[in-house]
Amino acid sequence: MKPKQTVRPNPYRTNLENMMVYPNPAKEADEELTFARLTAEAQINIYSLDLRLVKQLKTADKNGGVKWDMRDDAGRILPSGVYWYHATGKMIMERRNSE
User: What is the per-residue pLDDT across 63-84, written as a single tens digit (0 to 9) for each?
Assistant: First the structure.
């Protein structure tokens, strides 16, 4: 008899409900900001207060996190201040055989 195959979500990062950002608030001495507990294929868009997109980050290694060096997409260091972020993620399904 062939083993039964089940499809279930990855139990660790199925949504962005428990996403973390640290350090928060970031200080001028901080060199990077970490977005953690992301889905395997997440994207973070970072906006200035006037809603101008300043940086777009994507998880590359599917480890559930991404770091931001607090630079814009052109590589310029951004001034200290308040920035908005919008995170989206794709749920990854795993296939497991059960006997």
Answer: 778 999 999 999 999 988 899 9
